[in-house]
Amino acid sequence: MKAPTGPAKLYDCRDAFIDTLEDLGAANNDILAVVNDSVGSSKLTGFRDKFPERLINVGIAEQNMVGVSAGLANGGKIPFVCAASSFLTGRALEQIKADVAYSETNVKLVGISSGMAYGELGATHHSIEDFAWIRALPNIPVVAPTDRIETAAAVKWAAAHYGACFLRLSRIGVPDILPDDYIFKLGRANILRDGNDLTIISNGTLTNRALKAAAILEDNGLSVRVLNMASVRPIDENAIIEAANDTGAILTCEEHTIFGGLGSAVAEVVVDHCPVPMERLGVPGVFAPTGSANFLLDEFGMSPNGIVERGYKLIKRKV
Amino acid sequence: MTREVVRAIVYLNLYVELFMNSSELRTVANCIRRRDVQAVFEAGAGHVGGEMSVIDLLTALYFKVMSVNPKNPSDPKRDRLVLSKGHTALALYIVLSEKGFIQKEEIKTFLQPYSRLNGHPNRKKVPGVETNTGPLGHGLPIAVGMAKAAQLNRENWRTFVITGDGEMQEGSNWEAIMAGAQFKLDNLTLIIDHNRLQQGARLADTIDITPLRPKFEAFGWNVQEINGHDMDQIVNALDKDKIVPAKPTCIVAHTNKGAGISFMSDDVTWHHRVPNAEQYKQAMDELKKAAE
User: Fold this and answer.
1) pLDDT (tens digit per residue) in A179-191
2) A120 catalytic residue (yes or no)
């Protein structure tokens, strides 16, 4: 694994998503992009130029977008539904439940600009409930890749997997974290660095921050494991149980409300199998004030130093 | 019988059905009505009013118009039917059983614990069901997607979707209506079961979305209005020749909730009411008489 050293180049994961989708689209005529007018924000102009017939734009109509995609899947197509995550998951939740999850259709839901990526645009555009909403539904794996490498790998996995999934992508720049030859495996977390005093579990944009926090803690004599847990459902129970047994404390970090997301999913496993002190960093059940995504993450205690502080607090709780 | 002989009989039946006349279709519909009323009576639940309303439409589709094969229910080239008014699933189950998708004996399990036949249709449980409906306003968007898939594949199978008229109050339908016209889906036919009653009251006393025709015409659809209980009119409206190139078709089928049973017909209380023994006998007597 690459440990971040100094200021690294940052990448928008949407580029990796769209490059991969275009490659997959070139190899398979059945792959479609379905959008709610969001051609630009989903970076799909290249896909549209290459495969004009296969970019299905239903206009600003998210419920119809998901329903149409279920119908396209019934007709043998492999639709990637690309839309701002807040509108895709919030507006069309019943279609996701009935037409995709319950009907078990081969629809790939791609939530673009998830979390607080829209920053200053405000809480209407933040998608910090989507893990909770989609995780509650059977038949839809929930995946939040952490960098452009994992994004590309997850998109390839999604295309090859017969069935629905929810890919939660950001637009906040993140450095490369995973190796170039990384292969995404659903329900499998990756240990990015090992340690025995504390485990930090994160995904999406937070893994970069978690690694920085772990490095600071290590400089102060603590040994910290960092688990990248892109797959929120199904969740890697074994990795969580091992982390609890090996390090005795678990801190989760996510760009999501602390109610029902990654932290909750990890806590469910901890409570059932391996009770150890645990804390959850995330948005603490409020609508965010005005600010950029990175500002808001810092504001909610998820700067590297904020994570460090919470880590110290948690370690003190260890018996 | 060898497999080949069985297969030959199945294909022969499918072939014969294509040549069913309206009188024969009416006989089939009457038989389905009786089985439906019996199943609702025995299960002690159901949506009998809306089922009586939609049965003639389903009968014409499955026994005259659509190309579907119970021996190969997921044939990629099959015609599709989406029953968006999924609460009338029982009518669909009976039609599917009469077509051979499921055993006729299975109808008696309707709503029983672990039955495949729950109150709304499930495609993973029941062969011949295309999508799991129940919440209203879902079927038409899905049907638009199906028709779009056929268009992209340059295939000539057709997609049919049946909605209730009250269901047209759902905004998602109007999103799909816009898309269907924009995509020029002339392989898509929406049939609105226009019985003028919704669960709690008359459409006119709730949110009156009539008249439907000018609304669909304004949205760029080809519209036909028919008597949804007149088999000649139904079959005629569903004929391929009635397709207008580059336009989706909406058939406004004027129907009666509870059609075929005098005391249920056009009575708002029969949305999901269950007949008592006396009413059941009367309903069956009336239906038997109509079959004579």
Assistant:
1) 999 999 999 999 9
2) no
